[in-house]
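Researcher: Next entry in the queue.
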Amino acid sequence: MKTIAAAGALQSTAAKAATSPKRVQNPPAIRLVVLDVGGTIIEDRGDVPETLRSAMAKQGITATPAEISQWRGASKREIIRHFVERQAPGGDREKLATAIYQDFSARLSEIYRTVPPIAGAEDAIRNLRQSGYLLATTTGFDRGITIPIFHRLGWEKYFVAIVCSDDVAQGRPAPFMLFHAMESARVNSVAEVMAVGDTPLDLQAGSNAGLRAVVGVLSGASRAELLQPEPHTHILPSVADLPALLRSKV
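Model: Structure for this entry, 250 residues:
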C-alpha cells in the first residue's frame, strides 16, 4: 500500500510540474564591454589600408583597396603575411613580411599621433565606467602602435585590459582576443560580455566567442549593408549610443 501511495504521489507531482508554468530565468547582467579601437573609439580616416598598400608595394607586393578591405579588423601582421605568401617567390618570406610590417608600423605610429577619438567616445567610456561596467579593448594593431594612442589620450585608467593582435596566436575572426580580455577582467561567462566593433570581422569574432551581445557600429570602416549580414545583436550609429543601449537592459 505504501508503494502504491508513493507512486501516486510521484504521478501527482509530475502532473503538476507538467501543467505549471515554467519559470524563465533572466540572463545574467552584462559585466564586461569589449571595444574595438580603430573606427570604434578612434576615428578611421582610411590611413590603415592605404599605409598597408603602400608599405607592401614598396617591396613589390601588390594589393588592391578592395582586397585589403576584406581584411579590415584583422591582425595587420597577418594581412601582410597573407599577401607575401601569395606573391613572393621562394626564399625568406618571413623576413620580407617582417620588413614590410616594420615599415607599416613606423608610418602608422606617426599618423596616429594626431588621430582623434570618435565623437562622444570618451563620454561614453566614462559613463560606462561610472555605471560599473568593466571595459577592455581589442585591436588588430600591435602593442607598439596601440599603447601610445591610449597614453596620449589618457585612457589607460578606464580599461582593465588593452588586448593587441600580438598578444594572441591568431587575430580576428578568431575569438582569442575576446577570451584574453575576459581572462584579464576575470569574467568567466560569455553571457556577461558584450563586444563592439565596426567591421565584419569584429562581429564574426564576437559570434565565434559565443558572446551575449555583439554590436556593430557605423562610425568606422563599414556601412550598414556590410554589417547587417553578419551575426550581431545590435547595430548602432556609434559607440556614443552604447550607454543608452545598456540602460535598456539588453
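Model: Residues 145 and 248 are 35 Å apart (CA to CA).
Researcher: Noted, moving on.
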